[in-house]
Amino acid sequence: MNSVPDSGFPRYRPAGERALLVEFGEVIDKAIHNNVLMLDERLAAEPVEGFVEAVPAYASLLIVFDPLITDHGTIKRAVADRLAQAAFRVRRSVVREVLVCYDPDFAPDLQRVAEMTGLTEEQVIAAHLAGDYSVFMYGFAPGYAYLAGVPEAIQMPRKQAAVRDVPAGSVLIAGPQCLVTTLIMPTGWWIIGRSSTRILDSRAKDRPFLFDVGDGVRFRRVAREDFERAAS
């Protein structure tokens, strides 16, 4: 496996009667997440008896198992054995393109982000487009893919209070994270644009989500008329 920046890892924590959480760190970091991905793929290639599924997050992997077949200790030993093996090549990530329009009515927080970072609105947009984004995890709501890679120049703390009824397709940032909403939801993140790219497609039974965990994401700016054409 790759080396892990934080000391004292991996750590193993029981998560109820049927899951084990394997933690590789405590920060959002690509090297840490690569360890998550490698263990996830190792388990898929060499499943443990009683293994049900693995759920990757920013710095950890939740391993769900059948308690009638195995237990926490057995899973921990099997994971430790796999981590001790030679580095496992993570699958080549796919780079997905996401369209985004930064028109003012789609980006109610763009001006505020510019003011707080000391940049112009165009500089904020340029920084956002230049980010090196990867899908680190899904969570919170269907199709909510949490991306890491927001440039430091535009990293913002979350708002003190959430805003209700944020439209689906809104492009949000908070700290090093970015997200494209798939539903009308409240958010305490900063809304800097809107995307016409369909991230969640409930009609596609075989592949309802655009991204796989580990995929790269590239944002491409589009004009309002192109946004409306793509969204129609």
Describe, in plain words, how this protein is organized in 3D.
This protein has helices at 30-45, 72-84, 110-117, 121-130, 224-231; strands spanning 11-14, 19-23, 51-56, 60-65, 95-100, 133-138, 145-148, 163-166, 170-174, 177-180, 185-187, 190-194, 216-221. The protein is of the alpha+beta class. It has two domains: 11-84, Gyrase A, domain 2; 95-231, Cyclophilin-like (Cyclophilin). The strands form three sheets. A seven-stranded mixed beta sheet has the order 5-13-6-7-10-9-12, with helices on one face. It has a four-stranded antiparallel beta sheet with strand order 1-2-4-3, covered by helices on one side.
> Approximately how much beta-strand content do the residues carry?
25-35%
CATH architecture of the largest domain, please? Beta Barrel
Kindly state the mean pLDDT as a whole number? Answer: 91
Helix percentage: 10-25%
The name CATH uses for the topology of the largest domain is: Cyclophilin
